[in-house]
Amino acid sequence: MQFLFTVAICTYNGENRLSQLLDSLLLIDLIDSDRPNWEVIVIDNNSTDKTQEILQEYQQKLSLKVQFKYFFESRQGVAFARRRAIKEASSPIVGFLDDDNLPRRDWVINAYNFFDKNPQIGACGSLVRANYEVNPPQNFQRIAPFLAIVERGEKPLLSNSVLPPGAGLVIRKKAWLENVPEEPVLLGRVSNSLLSKGEEIEALCYIQKAGWEIWYNPEMMIYHDIPSSRLQEEYLLKLVAGVGLSRYHTRTIAVKKWQKPFLLFAYLVNDLRKLIWHIARYSAILPQDIVAACEFKLMLKSFISPFYFLWFYRRLSVHQ
Predict the structure, then answer these.
(1) Is 202 in the same domain as 307?
(2) Residues 195, 77 share a domain
(3) 136 with 159, same domain?
(4) Domain of 312?
(5) I want to staple 253 with a disulfide (CB 3.0 to 4.6 A). Which of 85, 140, 205, 309 is the partner?
(6) What are the C-alpha distances in Å from 311 to residues 115, 193, 303?
C-alpha cells in the first residue's frame, strides 16, 4: 500500500500522555473516511519509563485499523527523534504531534489537502490551542508561543519571520532530507544543555533557505495540554533562556559569511535597544511579574547569544 501521509509522534517518558493521543488517532481512522492512506509512527526517544510497554499494546490495537510502527532512538534530543521520523516515514508528507497534543478530527485530511494543492510548500504549522491545567498568569499570551501556543488568525498565512513550533508541524519529506543537516546544533530539551529550544526553527530555517515556502494553516487545528509545571517561573525562565541563546544561530543560517559581521552589529544594537526599553518600562514589577521577567530573560539571552556561540564553536572545534 502506498501511504500519502504519516503521523509521527516523538515521545520521551510519555507513558501518562500517549494513550489519549493514540485513542484520538484511532477515532480519526474510524470516522474519517475521506482521509488519505496513512500510517502512524512513534519514535521513542530513549524513554526510561513504561512508554515501550504502552506502545506495544497499542501496536496490536492500532495495526488492525492503521499501519503502526515503533522505533527506538537512543540519541537524546527531539531533533534526533524528528530526523529519525522523517527517514522512517513511508509517505511524502509527515505531520508531527507531540505526546501531549490532540489533533482535531480533520487535522490529517486538512494537512494533506493543503500540501497536495500547494507543491511549493515545504512546511506548515497548525493552529495550536492550549488546554491549561490551571489558569495561566496575567498577560500570558505575550509569551504563550514559547509553549507552542499559536493562533495567528482564521486565514492561512505565509510565514517569513515568524516560524511555527514543532507541535502540529507538517513537513514535506523531500524538503527536509535535501536541506536539513544530519547533525543539528540545536537538540531540544536535553539535560545539561543550555540550548533547550529552537530545534524546529533550525530545521525550518534550512528549508526556507532552500526556497521552500513555510505557512500557517488554521484549518489544521490541534490542542496542546499544558500542565501546571510548565507555568512555573523556574521552567518558563529556563525555556525562554534557551530560545534566546539559540537566536544567533537561527538568525544567521541563511546569511552569507561576509554579511555576518554587519548583521551581528545590527542585531546587537537592536537587542540592546529592546533590553533597555524593557528595563525602563518594567523594572518596578520584574520581581513579581512572571511574563515581564521571561521577556527580560529572553532579551538578555538574545543579546548574549552571539558571544555564547563564539565560545560554543571554539569549544566544538577544540574537541573535533
Answers:
(1) no
(2) yes
(3) yes
(4) 235-319
(5) 205
(6) 40, 14, 14
Q: How confident is the model at residue 317 (pLDDT cuts 50, 70, 90)?
A: very low
Residue 128: name the closest of 203, 53, 226 by CA. 226
Looking at 194, 214, 230, the residue that finishes a domain is 230
Q: Look at the alpha carbons of 14, 37, 168, 130 in this order and tell me if their dihedral is positive or negative.
A: negative
The 3 state secondary structure assigned to the chain is CCCCEEEEEEECCCCCCHHHHHHHHHHHHHHCCCCCCEEEEEEECCCCCCHHHHHHHHHHHHCCCCEEEEEECCCCCHHHHHHHHHHHCCCCEEEEEECCEEECCCHHHHHHHHHHHCCCEEEEEEEEEEEECCCCCCCHHHCHHHHCCECCCCCCEECCCCCCCCCCCEEEHHHHHHHCCCCCCCCCCCCCCCCCCCHHHHHHHHHHHCCCEEEEEEEEEEEEEECHHHHCHHHHHHHHHHHHHHHHHHHCCCCCHHHHHHHHHHHHHHHHHHHHHHHHHHCCCCCCCHHHHHHHHHHHHHHHHHHHHHHHHHHHHHHC
Nearest to 201 by CA among 99, 305, 291: 305
- Specify whether 215 is located in the same domain as 251: no
User: What's the domain count of the chain?
Assistant: 2
Specify the pLDDT at position 81. Answer: 93
pLDDT per position as a tens digit, 87-129: 999 999 999 999 999 999 999 999 999 999 999 999 999 999 9
Spell out the residues 6+ positions from residue 210 whose beta carbon is closer than 8 angstroms to its own: 122, 175, 178, 179
Q: Of 230, 253, 288, at which residue does a domain stop?
A: 230
Q: Of 106, 120, 104, 121, nearest to 216 (Cα)? A: 121
- pLDDT for the residue 313: 61
Q: What are 169-190's pLDDT values in tens digits?
A: 999 999 999 999 988 888 666 5
Q: Are residues 34 and 177 in the same domain?
A: yes
- Joined together, the cell numbers standing for residue 247 give 537566536
